[in-house]
Amino acid sequence: MKKRILVTGGLGYIGSHTTVELLARGYEVILADNLSNTRAEVLDGIHSIAGIRPEWLNVDLADPMACREALQGRNLDGIIHFAAFKAVGESVQKPLKYYQNNLFSLMNILDYVKQNPNCGLIFSSSCTVYGQADNLPITENAPVKAAESPYGNTKQIGEEILSEIAHAAKLKTIALRYFNPIGAHASAKIGELPLGVPQNLVPFITQSAAGLRGPLSVYGNDYPTSDGTAIRDYIHVLDLAQAHIIALERLIENGQESPMEVFNLGTGHGSSVLEVIQAFERATGQLLNWTFAPRRAGDIVAAYADTQRATEVLGWTAGKSLDDSMRDAWAWQCALNVAKKDA
Ligand code: WQD
């Protein structure tokens, strides 16, 4: 009997990559996505890669009745909850939209899990909860600092709600704190699909190199780092997807050591913005136009993960390099351009 997994936000960036990995490992997958930040064509990409077209529920999970109706009687073995708004800048402009969507959807999912406590829940969290950590690399015990944005606050509050409910109801839950997800599936059939002007570094790089945007603005060259530009831990989205499956299987096999466990998901290496640009040019042969610009409000200087816990407890480490990620991101951008031309 196939294990049945609900992937919320399953037509999104990390959700779609995790879905193809789940399908490849023989899971039955049900997707829930209301297309608020993606396109229905992603399902075609999943189908083309996996050879299976998962069931898709077009549902607003922040609506308690709609969520309850969609999940009723599904007998889920696990839920991977990606569905959330995630644009830091937008969250500052529209905080209520972020609190309502991100927290109501989590609480509605928790309603189902409370009634079905054997269903494991993986919560998509973020290294944002650490703010500018005092020590690098960042371990899971690093203090959670005051959020720099409503988006980051929804991840912090989400983890608090999850922990409280999981301990009270003896649930099986894991929060995964991602560092910076980048790259795309090697098939170039799915990838990051920012709607509008990309806020994140790598999609802006690929769109600029493709001639869809002007030169990249490098936000700040006066940070206390080796080359003056900010440092992040860029992890390939497929490495991230595989970590989700390992965490899910830990819960299905009742291997968890507490009702809520937390893991950092990163490569353990920090790369500056200039090093990302160099990796892009090296891996793709494309030259990038860029210019220094003032620092972006809310940005931290540096963040990269201590990956020891994920390695020792989950037996997982990221395998792909920054160059792999750049190559895959560029191949995806090129495929998008071709698709646009054909449209
Ligand atoms: C990376 C670096 C920028 C754009 C955020 C969220 C995190 C996650 C990923 C959701 C920074 C610099 C960027 C540009 C630049 N979100 N940059 N020019 O801010 O580290 O993380 O997105 O899952 O939770 O906090 O990612 O890609 O925006 O920025 O110089 O046009 O690139 O200043 O140093 P960030 P990012």
What is the share of helical residues? 40-55%
Order of helix and strand elements from N to C terminus: EHEHEHEHHEHEEHEEEHEEHEHH
How many domains in all?
2
Small-molecule binders:
UDP-4-deoxy-4-formamido-beta-L-arabinopyranose
- In one word, what is the shape? globular
According to DSSP, the number of beta strands is: 13
Q: What's the end-to-end separation, in Å?
A: 41 Å
SS summary, helix count:
11
Q: What structural class should be given to the helix and strand makeup?
A: alpha/beta
Give the CATH class of the largest domain: Alpha Beta
Specify the biggest β-sheet: 7 strands, parallel
What name does CATH use for the topology of the largest domain?
A: Rossmann fold
| Rg over C-alpha atoms, rounded to the nearest angstrom | 19 Å
Q: Unreliable runs, pLDDT <50, ≥5 residues?
A: none
CATH architecture of the largest domain: 3-Layer(aba) Sandwich
CATH homology superfamily of the largest domain: NAD(P)-binding Rossmann-like Domain
What does this structure look like?
With 343 residues, the chain is α/β, with parallel strands linked by helices. The protein folds into two domains: 4-182 and 235-266, Rossmann fold (3-Layer(aba) Sandwich); 201-231 and 269-311 and 321-342, UDP-galactose 4-epimerase, domain 1, CATH 3.90.25.10. It is 41% helix and 16% strand. The chain contains eleven helices and 13 strands. It has helices at residues 13-24, 41-50, 64-71, 88-93, 95-115, 150-169, 201-209, 237-252, 273-284, 308-314, 322-342; strands at 4-8, 28-32, 55-57, 78-81, 120-126, 173-178, 180-182, 216-219, 231-232, 234-236, 260-265, 271-272, 290-293. The protein has a seven-stranded parallel β-sheet, sandwiched between helices. β1 (4-8), α1 (13-24) and β2 (28-32) form a beta-alpha-beta unit. It is globular and about 55 Å long. The protein starts with a strand and ends with a helix. The mean pLDDT is 97. Bound molecules: UDP-4-deoxy-4-formamido-beta-L-arabinopyranose. UDP-4-deoxy-4-formamido-beta-L-arabinopyranose binds at residues 86, 88, 126, 128, 178, 180, 199-201, 204, 216-219, 230, 232, 273, 296, 299.
